[in-house]
Amino acid sequence: MIPEPALIGAIAETVRVYGPRRVPLDVVLSAAAKVDHSAAVSVHWRRRVLTAITFLAAEGVIDLPKTRTDRRADPPLPAYVTRRGAPSGQAEKPAPIVWHADLGWAALADERGEWSTAERSCLALVNSWLPRRRGVVVPIRERSLEITGDDKALENWLFGPLFRPGRLTLDLLECEQCWPPVNRRILGDSDTWLLVENYTTYVSLSRRAAELGFDGQIIWGSGNQVRTRLRALAACGERPLECWYFGDVDAGGFRIARTAWQCVRDLGFEELRPAKGLYSLAIEYGQRRPSGRTLRMSAATAAWVQEWLDESLGDVCLAVARSGERVVQENVGVEVLAATALSDWFNDR
Q1: Per-residue pLDDT tens over the stretch 193-210
Q2: Which of 83, 112, 139 finishes a domain?
Q3: What is the pLDDT of residue 37?
Q4: 326, 200: one domain
Q5: What total number of domains does the chain contain?
Q6: Is residue 113 domain-shared with residue 154, that is, in the same domain?
Q7: Same structural domain for residues 122 and 257?
Q8: CA 126 to CA 113: how far, in whole Å?
Q9: Is residue 60 domain-resident?
Q10: What strand order describes the sheet that includes 242-246?
Q11: What digits encode the pLDDT tens for the residues 24-42?
Q12: Are 70 and 127 in the same domain?
């Protein structure tokens, strides 16, 4: 697996600024997740982190324990990493970069020490690529793969500090945004969004919403692909005044919900709130069934669910998710929805 600059930079920066030299694995994972919020749902997440850690060890940035490993999931990861100290009397300095003329703004900020390790790593890769421009515009993921070795890296930076006015642009990188189509039902102009994890429930909710006079949008979140749908809408200049979410009640469903919540925050939208009434309907009418999956909920995700849903509803939903069972949102189907009003969807029941 190819080391990913964004993950390497985020982990390296955290190791550098962390107080003790020994950095626990949970801190490393949290640092990596901040630059790639797909961590909650990525099948190969631990392998990608392991690749980044191994790269940093090979580069002499960190040391790995010989025996202490975390085996809660595959592949095993070191239980901690240890920052290598600089020789006595020497400050750790990043390698100098001869900046391309088109990155003069990056050079000035670099002189002032304004870039994080992750940002500087990304800019260094762009700097190395710029002389190889060929005047051919390609989709952003193709360009990202060429520049960074990671097809999603540039998308992760696109709505962040590196692409602020006067900095990186798609024109400079000779690429264009390329988002999948967003399935949605626009029922009015109130700028209220309801994101729905699964397609079947999206259809049923859309039809009932139209009958009830809902004047916002019902949007299919496309499961694990919810970030691409939200970014596609943001790229078109759309912003909700209210943003709600409804998904499955299980470990995977809440990981997706948390991914959507974090993406909404990163995009600067209004806070993503749970459609508590719909979640309550799922619990009330749904049957708990074995999930048939090996996904486990992390302590961080469980704490987030408790806060997001509030105490009583959070307790019930967490009991389902932690048991290895699930209540799918399709339990809130046509017949259940027929007896509801819009107020039943969003408010506590």
Answers
A1: 999 999 999 999 999 999
A2: 83
A3: 64
A4: yes
A5: 3
A6: yes
A7: no
A8: 18
A9: yes
A10: 184-186, 217-220, 192-196, 242-246, 272-274
A11: 998 899 888 887 766 656 6
A12: no
Residues 82, 126: Cα–Cα separation, whole Å: 30
| Residues linked to residue 83 through DSSP beta bridges, in sequence order | 62
- The answer to whether residues 167 and 78 belong to one domain is no
The residue segments making up the domain with residue 151 are 103-176
